[in-house]
C-alpha cells in the first residue's frame, strides 16, 4: 500500500512539473512575442517586481526599473527586439516554486544567442526573476574575441 501511495505521489509531482514547464514555456514565448511587438506593458508584466535583467554588455546588470528606462525609448518608437527560441530546457525545483531555464535563440541581428534565467511562482503565476542574454562564443574564436575585449578595456 505504501508503494502505491509513493508511486501516485511521484506521478502527481511529475504531472505538476509538466504543467509548470508548459506554463513557463508560455511565459518565455510571450516574453519574446511582446518584445518583438514592442508591447512594453505586457512585456514587463512577465517579470516579478525585484527582477534583474543581465544584457550582453558587461555594464548591463539592471534592476527592473533600470531595464524599463533602457527599453522605454525602444518600445515607444514602435520597435522591439526579436529573438526566436530554437531550443529550450526548463528545470522545476522540487518545491515547484522556482524554476530555471536555458534557451538557444536566433536573432537576425546577432545570430545565435542564449537566454538563461530564473522564474519564481507567486500566487499561482510564474514570473521572471532573472533573465540573462548572452552571445555564445565558439571556442575556436574565443581567444580572438577576448583579445578584442581586453584591448577595448585598456
Automatic annotation (TrEMBL):
Annotated signal peptide: 1-18
Start and end residues of each SnoaL-like domain: 26-138
Superkingdom field: Bacteria
Pfam family, one: SnoaL_3
Keyword annotations: Signal
Listed name of the protein: Protein with SnoaL 3 domain, NTF 2 superfamily
Amino acid at each position: 500500500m505504501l508503494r502505491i501511495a509513493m508511486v501516485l505521489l511521484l506521478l502527481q509531482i511529475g504531472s505538476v512539473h509538466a504543467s509548470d514547464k508548459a506554463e513557463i514555456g508560455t511565459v518565455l514565448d510571450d516574453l519574446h512575442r511582446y518584445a518583438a511587438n514592442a508591447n512594453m506593458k505586457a512585456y514587463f508584466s512577465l517579470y516579478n517586481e525585484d527582477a534583474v535583467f543581465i544584457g550582453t554588455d558587461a555594464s548591463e546588470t539592471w534592476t527592473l526599473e533600470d531595464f524599463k528606462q533602457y527599453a522605454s525609448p525602444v518600445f515607444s518608437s514602435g520597435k522591439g527586439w526579436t529573438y526566436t527560441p530554437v531550443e529550450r530546457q526548463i528545470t522545476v525545483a522540487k518545491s515547484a516554486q522556482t524554476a530555471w531555464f536555458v534557451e538557444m535563440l536566433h536573432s537576425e541581428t546577432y545570430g545565435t544567442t542564449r537566454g538563461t534565467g530564473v522564474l519564481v511562482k507567486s500566487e499561482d503565476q510564474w514570473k521572471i526573476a532573472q533573465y540573462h542574454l548572452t552571445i555564445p562564443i565558439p571556442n575556436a574564436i574565443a581567444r580572438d574575441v577576448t583579445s578584442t575585449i581586453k584591448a577595448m578595456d585598456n
